[in-house]
Request: fold
Amino acid sequence: MGSILIYLIAAISGAAMALQGALNSVLGKVVGELESTFIVHIIATLVVALVLFIFNLGKGDLGEALSAPWYSYLGGILNVLILYGVIFSMPRLGVANATTIIITAQILTAITIDHLGVWGLEKVGFQWVQLVGLIFLSIGVKLLFLR
Reply:
């Protein structure tokens, strides 16, 4: 798969996250934050089931699910935390401010995970240029919060 396509898919994912957060927040105002989290997970489960079982687009093997390490299933719990956190924070901070904090936390966590190579992931050592990027990111966060 070409690197431009990979970048494009990542960019679409980022845009979808902002759109999803905004839409989920609208639903949360109507039905409640935790209730919205539940509804969105039900819809997501139905869509994935449709894609996986009706359109047969999966390329993996569900029969191997029990061979995965126990901690790899914590992603499901984290997904609830992520979704609820987005639904809770966006109406209070605004989509741009909440997304800025979310992305900053993602990057800081990702750099740490890369550096430590936890859970059997390949170690990607910390580079000092990343520190410069984090400084610029911090400045950008501060500028985005100016009103």
